Amino acid sequence: MMPTIEALYEDAIRYEEHVLAHYILCLIQEGKISLDDEDSVLFEVQPDMEKLTNMIENNHLRFCEIHMYALKVGEGKWAFIFAESEEEAKIHLWRTTGRRALNCREMAPDEEVFIANRFISFREWKKEHKEFPCLVGYC
Considering only CA atoms, which of 107, 77, 79, 114 is closest in space to residue 94? Predict the structure, then answer.
């Protein structure tokens, strides 16, 4: 049995693949596909690009725009901050620690780290925080 549009849509939302989720929703709203269709139907249809672009830009599905950033603060020392952008992470580091980042990079959401005696992905760890930006640790 082939995967369905419904399964792909649920995965897109679960893994925060916002472009794919909006793409599928747009096609469903236009009546070009249904949730019961096989996911291979996506190769055969295209949404109205203006409508899709508008949905993505306006974040119609309300995806969280927070990412994990690793900011180098010294030789072999890194701070980890959840923020909307690299710039916001750097500003938050300065405001909370008085330190400037020597380097900054966005981390993959599914990368796992060892926190409080458990392995957890940045995606799951983000769900444990309520306010952003936030400094969550040093390494």
Answer: 79
Q: Is the pTM higher than 0.90?
A: no
Contacting residues for 64 by C-beta, under 8 A, at least 6 apart? 16, 126
DSSP 3: P
- Residue 80 pairs with which residues in a beta bridge? 70, 137
Q: What is the pLDDT of residues 72-131, one digit of tens each?
A: 999 999 999 999 999 999 999 999 999 999 999 999 888 999 988 999 999 889 989 999
SS3 call for 121: strand
Distance CA 60, CA 57 (A): 8
Alpha-carbon distance 82 to 34, whole Å? Answer: 36
